[in-house]
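Lab notebook, design round three. We kept the backbone fixed and only want residue identities now. Task for the bench partner: fill in a sequence for the structure below.
Input structure tokens:
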């Protein structure tokens, strides 16, 4: 499902890019997905930003390499933000929330 979000142009990956998208407001993620092995610093930074901007942050039982694979990236991705509200709801349903 996250791959579909990427193809639709509704996924922002990486901590810095997600934080910047949250600051912009108009293109802010509707939900931020954080991998289980994200560093404590990354997790805190993202959850604090999400709380400040009123965006839901979800830690999922998926490794950063699996998240990177879902996005079609070679390497690891600690977090991904889904910018489309409808797709965000579909992702949340897939992870049973």
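Proposed sequence:
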């Amino acid at each position: 499902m996250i791959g579909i979000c990427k193809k639709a142009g509704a996924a922002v990956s990486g901590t810095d890019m997600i934080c910047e998208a949250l600051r912009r407001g108009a293109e802010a993620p509707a939900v931020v997905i954080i991998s289980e092995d994200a560093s404590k610093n990354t997790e805190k930074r993202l959850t604090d930003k999400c709380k400040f901007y009123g965006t839901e942050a979800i830690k999922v039982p998926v490794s950063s390499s699996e998240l990177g694979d879902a996005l079609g990236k070679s390497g690891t991705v600690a977090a991904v933000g889904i910018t489309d509200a409808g797709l965000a709801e579909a992702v949340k349903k897939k992870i049973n929330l």
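Keep this in mind before ordering anything: The chain has one domain: 2-94.
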